[in-house]
Design goal:
It is a single chain. The chain is α+β, with helices and mostly antiparallel strands and about 375 residues long. It folds into four domains: about 20-115, no CATH class; about 120-200, GMP Synthetase, Chain A, domain 3; about 225-265, no CATH class; about 275-325, no CATH class. Helix content is about 25%, strand content about 20%. The protein contains twelve helices and twelve strands. The chain has helices at about 15-20, 95-100, 120-130, 130-145, 175-185, 195-205, 215-220, 230-235, 240-245, 260-265, 310-320, 375-384; strands at about 45-50, 55-60, 75, 80-90, 110-115, 150-155, 160-170, 190-195, 275, 280-290, 295, 305-310. The strands form three sheets. The protein has a five-stranded mixed barrel. Strands 9-10-11-12 form a four-stranded antiparallel β-sheet, with helices on one face. The protein has a three-stranded mixed β-sheet with strand order 6-7-8. Strand 10 (about 280-290) and strand 11 (about 295) form a beta hairpin. Helix 4 (about 130-145) packs across helix 5 (about 175-185). It is elongated and about 85 Å long.
């Protein structure tokens, strides 16, 4: 009789969580593949996500049905020649990523040639080693031509036949002569790609004031415009130094919660409305938008005799003022007496207890015990 097979429980890296799903966080815009341990997921589509230097990604067809996993180095189709990249995603989630990057034309999706060989990787490493020196030299050439632009990064293609120059410019730049000079200096095909300040920060990376890695370098693929109205809706001080990110633009995170603040702000009374009570008139000093609390002051310009009430209470007083009525105070209506606040004794008891003299306890003297029987002969003899 055959022995029954034991059920094997896979844990940790055996389940693919280290290699396929999470992987090392050494790639920017890393996507967590929560379908990695689903059987047959990599074979649902032949589309594969491949990442190159920093935040540049591409999507390719696995026409040769290679057994690709996250972290594999592959040679992909390029124009001209081939490029070298790292597989960062396979399976169903690649289709969702295509929708995010808005790739609709099938011509934008090229082919994966093969898993990179030893000589492919060697050429790739040599090309990467030339990138920094090429960037420094290209900046000198651009400065010599008097162009108002900044070359922020250089990326060589995997086979070393092409170089992408990423630049930032506020205005239109005529770099036709620059391309000729760069091609003559480096003997490669030149491609100029303009990026914004936010994209440059994403390519370089860094740590934000929140203590976490920059969003543009970890997960953000599309950048929406950020205005100062986002800070106003959230009642944030308009301090340029605090509102600006590493890219010297307004922080992208100002847009994360602005919709919640706008909806919560609709429940608060207007800022110009004055609350009239029998104690006096109160002006709005500040709001706690998410908590729904309003702080009012008797002075319009400074904080004086501040009272904090809920937005519902403020609306009730506004309705009373429209009817010509005035409550006793912000917190109490007419006919309701304000209950005195209970006194809290921080000392924990009567403070006069320290003035009382402590009674000294008298020590008891040892009295002789006449009923005690003598225990030894000496005591018995002395007793006679």
């Amino acid at each position: 009789m055959e022995k029954s097979k034991e059920h094997i429980v896979h844990v940790g890296c055996d389940r693919g969580l280290c290699h396929q799903a999470v992987g090392r966080q050494d790639k920017q815009l890393n996507t967590y593949d929560w379908l990695a341990d689903v059987p047959g997921n990599p074979y649902t589509t032949d589309l594969v996500e491949v990442q190159f230097k920093h935040t540049r990604k591409g999507y390719y067809h696995n026409v040769n049905n290679l057994d690709l996993k996250k972290g594999d180095i592959v040679a992909v189709e390029a124009s001209p020649g081939h490029d070298i990249g790292v597989v960062t995603l396979t399976g169903r989630l690649v289709k969702l990523q295509l929708k995010k990057v808005n790739i609709k034309s099938p011509d934008d999706i090229k082919r994966i040639y093969r898993i990179a060989r030893e000589n492919d990787i060697q050429k790739w490493r040599e090309a990467q080693a030339r990138e920094h020196s090429t960037m420094i030299e290209s900046r000198k050439i651009a400065k010599g031509l008097g162009l108002d632009m900044k070359i922020g990064d250089v990326e060589y293609q995997g086979d070393g036949n092409k170089a992408i120059f990423y630049y930032i410019a506020d205005e239109r730049v005529d770099f036709r002569q620059l391309i000729k000079d760069l091609a003559q200096a480096f003997h490669v095909r030149i491609e100029m790609k303009q990026i914004g300040a936010r994209q440059e920060a994403g390519r370089i990376g860094g740590t934000g004031p929140c203590g976490r890695e920059l969003c543009c370098a970890t997960w953000m693929k599309n950048f929406s415009s950020v205005s100062t109205n986002a800070a106003r809706f959230q009642d944030i001080s308009l301090n340029p130094q605090k509102l600006a990110g590493m890219c010297a633009k307004l922080k992208c995170c100002l847009n994360y919660e602005v919709d919640d603040y706008v909806e919560a702000g609709k429940q608060l009374p207007g800022k110009d409305i004055i609350l009239q009570t029998q104690d006096g008139d109160y002006h709005l000093f500040k709001n706690d938008i998410l908590a729904g609390l309003c702080t009012y002051s008797t002075d319009k310009n400074i904080a004086a005799n501040c009272e904090t009430i809920t937005a519902e209470r403020a609306k009730t007083i506004i309705e009373m003022n429209k009817r010509g009525e005035k409550p006793v105070s912000l917190t109490h209506d007419e006919g309701k007496k304000a209950e005195p606040k209970p006194h809290i004794d921080l000392a924990g008891g009567d403070i006069s207890r320290f003035d009382k003299a402590k009674k000294k306890k008298k020590k008891k003297k040892n009295k002789p015990n006449n009923n005690r029987q003598p225990n030894d002969k000496k005591e018995a003899k002395d007793a006679k």
